[in-house]
Write a structure and sequence with these properties.
Layout (H helix, E strand, L loop, with lengths): L7 E3 L2 H22 L3 E5 L6 H14 L6 E5 L1 E6 L5 E3 L8 H17 L10 E2 L7 H9 L5 E4 L22 E4 L2 H10 L12 E4 L2 H7 L3 E5 L5 H9 L18 E6 H4 L11 E2 L1
Parallel strand pairs: 1-11, 1-12, 2-3, 2-7, 3-6, 7-10, 10-11
Antiparallel strand pairs: 4-5, 4-9, 8-9
Length: 277
Amino acid sequence: MPAPLTPRVFATPDGLGAALADEIADGIAAAGQAGRRYVLGCPGGRSPRPVYRALARLTAARGLDLRHVVIAMMDEYVLPAPGGGFRDIDHTAHHSCHRFAAEEIAGPLNAAAGPRRSMPADAVWFPSPQDPAAYDVRLAEAGGVDLFLLASGASDGHVAFNPPGTAADSGSRITALAETTRADNMGTFPGFADLAEVPRHGVTVGVRTIVAHSRRAVMAVHGAHKREAVRRLAASTAYDPQWPATLVVDCRDPALYVDAAAFAAGAAPYAGSRADG
């Protein structure tokens, strides 16, 4: 059974983001020197924003070549399609993960790299609502995900769109969003006027997708509203379906990065963790 993860504590979200971005930049550079692809698993939302901002700065400062980089996104909202099945929401919608990836990940990274070192147009991947299981095959054929950047829902521990109760062997699929997840998403995407506007379904990677295909997984948690998430994650020794983000303990080379605000309530049980700037 895995040992509980010792949180690495940072003074601020920006300090957390800078440390993780530095690790990712090192991985990108090493993969480029080895002549191989670098696959970065990415969520949308608030938690990874400090990482993406810092990685764009490092890309410019270090002159990183991103032509071998793939951004593997984790989910997207979907709506019932005419005639049955599901379809993506409008990719320009304020809450679209496609829009988030274009405007907050790939766009800034490519601008920082410059036109001769940018990722190719097809380097941002998503699971398809028409054939979600094909995403797991694609990640496997790519050699796995070099680093899966993960985030935990504040109120229910959802990871990607996997709700409480998700089985450990779940793959990429269409899933109904938990009401707690939909409520959390109102904070993630403030363009929602009320809960009724939040879609009820999403296409998502599964728990097995993340665990089976990650070479490294880092859970990034920051903000006082994530204290319960830190408490649960730091105490976990196995996957708990009622808090899906605990999957990180079963991943290869896992880590838990938190900021001081998220760590505060759990400081006593986890005394001895190192605080970073």
